[in-house]
Amino acid sequence: MPSSNAATRKAGIIAEGLAFGESPRWHDGRLWLCNWGTGQIVAVGEEGACEVMLTTGAVLPYSIDWLPDGRLLVISGREGILLRRETDGTLVTHADLRGLSQNPWNEIVVDGRGNIYVNGGGPAAAPGEHFGPGTIVLVTSDGAIRQVADNIAFANGMVVTPDNRTLIVAESHARRLTAFDIAGDGSLANRRIWADLGGDYPDGIVLDTEGCVWYADVPNRHCVRVREGGTKVETVPADRGCFACMLGGVEGRTLYILAAEWRGFEHMVSDARTGQVLSVDVSAAGAGWPSRGSGL
After folding, report:
1. How many angstroms separate the CA atoms of 160 and 14, rounded?
2. Range of 61's domain?
3. Digit-coded pLDDT (tens) for 198-234
4. Residue 175: which CATH number?
5. Alpha-carbon distance 24 to 222, whole Å?
6. Which of these, 7, 89, 172, 284, has the minimum number of CB atoms within 10 Å of its CB?
7. Are 171 and 154 in contact (CB under 8 A)?
8. 3-class SS shares of the chain: helix, strand, coil, % to 5
9. Does a structural domain hold residue 248?
10. Peptide bond just before 290 cis, omega within 30 deg
11. Is residue 2 in some structural domain?
């Protein structure tokens, strides 16, 4: 596995007291995230001011993104429903994934053509395991749903390159980033290892304008920038698990990291409030999808 002595950067805390932050997205000039444990979607300003944008009640919002027309999508992972918020604020079902799997769904990304990729699901976990092999499904603009990849080793963050030709997914349990070519109809092909990460466990990821990927790592408590092929060029350490990251800010060169103390899967939704939003200035802006959204 190619590697290098990665430069170290130090992040500062801009917000804390979250239950468990996940799926950060830069949208309309703020960092939006899912606050697991509260059923809320929260927007955080650059100075740390937090505003609850949506409360989903009993539904646990795993991941969010936006359709090209600006409507918010929310994946209700445990329930297997992809929800859409209408202009009047109501939540409706955009896609029902329960026919594909009864296991939880995880991350979503909407590409530049309006195709929605959702990962997770898949076969039942083996005895003693929390997750079975994951899948990636495609929801097209006409509402059709089909599986486009399988046997993903704990599917986590996903990005699509600016040309809409490549999808990269974090396979946490395989400790690698995996790439697929995207066909004109949204299908995935030519599966390959984009970066072997050695002893790291990638969770949420974000792509930058230099073609590098930042990935968050829970057990190793850091966020790392890696080139295709596996060379690690920068790292941001933390004092707790790093679950997800996003590039945003006025110029797109602020790296936001969602961090929290990891206490095991059985305590993912609890009364603990160890979640933080960290930020650090970096050299390259965000690129591709999830996009930086509108109202930069």
Report:
1. 28
2. 7-281
3. 999 999 999 999 999 999 999 999 999 999 999 999 9
4. 2.120.10.30
5. 16
6. 89
7. yes
8. 0, 50, 45
9. yes
10. yes
11. no
